[in-house]
Design goal:
Chain lengths: 314, 314
């Protein structure tokens, strides 16, 4: 590991998890951190998310050889400008934003003389803030690195090694392709989840209490990602607008086709559609990207003990 | 408990779980069962889902005082006709179907001389078949009972006591209101999940392998319920058509409004929408209808041990 001093700007779920993961897996690396919110800084210090929580962004980056911006997409440019004067000339600049073309542009404009290699760890939970991070967040998750053309290959390999040390699998991708892939695997699902939870809140015929009580029928699965940080997600949709709108158009076409099948009572179309989606989940579990236990393991957690009778065949 | 002999027709996730739950929580009650699929019958006997797996539905119900139909909605009428000749005159007839108006009609036509009280335990996992059931499925879940007008109150209270014995909380509701409530808390979420998983499978610009790899960004949450039994869900949408189409219309309106906000760059509308959906999840967790652990507890399961440094304040 060639990075000796890592500065983390933004100490929420991602920044805090990076700080904890570096301490856990790269114990020789010194970490500094900054968050523009004073309460977050205090809590970050209490939780020891980084070795040193600084009072300014400039102080946090003063001696670093890697700075990672872990702020909402809309704040990347401002955060980068705040460190410009203090950032060592040979420090590598990276981030964890969920949309990569816009980040490359914002960081490039603010820090035109630095090497910038954007990255996106595809890992998270619905929680946010200084209490949300944990060291294992990136283990067996993918981190997509989107180097611009003619990127310094030494710096690139150092960044790859850094993420691998934190437990991630690294993939290199063009920023525009990243934005299309994430539009379908992350941005569209969040938009849909936010929508349906809102729809359920606005009904007049069904009370909110009923929606809550009977949420185990499927609705509750959507509420998890609809509990994600609103600022972060506002910025994602504004930043990756075109790809999200493209995917949304496909989704709407497919939904309209199923709606028509329901309206005309076309059971065969419904069955055929529903039968082919099982394979996708099987693949996700085989690839280690989700829990194989039914109901995300919630049933295991709820049951204090299993009371099945002893099977006859074992 | 006044039921002494319970017959279960259909030994998949619901029927198998009822059989196991009765054995666990009502050990004096004798259970019989039947499934039209011979392999399911064999597996049900191996797992001892009920005390006796019968070769015909008529044999299973011959001496029962409660029969519960646990078959797809489209098969309720046929299953009921198959037991008509053998079913004792005073046996109570119930079911576990996800749509209640259509069940009341189908069972009423097939068994016009019996007392019929439909019910719907709002509990399940994405798994189906004889291997899917477990005794704790109904614990702290709601079971909605939809008695028709002028229902025999003694029978009704017996059915309520039965479900409470299995760990469920029981709610009494009109069948038409049930169908509206479930359209939003269960049927619409399943339709949306099936749609988005299908949309992601059909893309040309993004490979299936990429969809799988980066599914932790949110997509994987949808794949769980899109892995549910296709026959069951085809029948749900055909059975509860009107309520589903109504809810789908509301959802589409709301999605269109957010789509417009994205297109015109209206961050305030997006933020305000995203900020209000968190409260719904909080309520669901407070009501015990979902797991409070981040990421449905998947992160806990994945992490062999937590490696956080000792906090300074504790």
């Amino acid at each position: 590991m060639t990075f000796q001093r890592v500065a983390i700007i933004g100490l929420g779920l991602q920044g805090g998890s990076i700080g904890l993961a570096v301490q856990a897996y790269l114990p020789d690396v010194v970490t500094t951190g900054y968050d523009r919110d004073a309460i977050t800084r205090t809590r970050a210090a209490e939780r020891r998310l980084v070795h040193k929580v600084c009072d300014t962004a400039a102080e946090a980056v003063a001696d670093c050889d890697l700075v990672i911006f872990c702020v909402p997409l809309g704040a990347m440019g401002i955060a980068a400008e705040q460190v410009r004067a203090a950032l060592p000339a040979d420090a590598l600049v990276s981030d964890v934003g969920s949309s990569k073309q816009v980040v490359a542009k914002a960081l490039g404009e603010a820090l035109p003389d630095h090497v910038i290699i954007p990255a996106h760890p595809v890992a998270g939970t619905e929680n946010s803030g200084a209490d949300a991070g944990f060291a294992e967040l990136f283990r067996n998750r993918w981190c997509i690195v989107t180097p611009p053309p003619q990127t310094n290959l030494v710096k690139l390999s150092q960044l790859v090694a850094f993420w691998e040390a934190l437990g991630a699998n690294v993939e290199i991708m063009d920023a525009d392709h990243h934005d299309l892939v994430l539009a379908v695997t992350s941005h569209l699902p969040h938009l849909i989840a936010y929508t349906i939870v809102g729809t359920a809140s606005d009904l007049e015929e069904v009370t909110q209490s009923e929606v809550i009580k009977y949420s185990a029928g499927g609705f509750r699965d959507f509420t998890r990602i609809a509990a994600s940080d609103p600022t972060m997600w506002r910025d994602v949709f504004l930043s990756n607008r075109q790809a999200v709108l493209t995917m949304l158009q496909r989704f709407t076409e497919d939904l309209t086709a199923l709606q028509r099948a329901i309206r005309i009572g076309d059971g065969e179309t419904l069955f055929n559609h529903f039968a082919r989606t099982r394979a996708t989940r099987r693949s996700i579990i085989e690839e280690g990207q989700d829990d194989a236990r039914p109901d995300f393991g919630r049933a295991d957690h709820r049951a204090d003990h299993r009371t099945d009778p002893k099977p006859a065949d074992s």
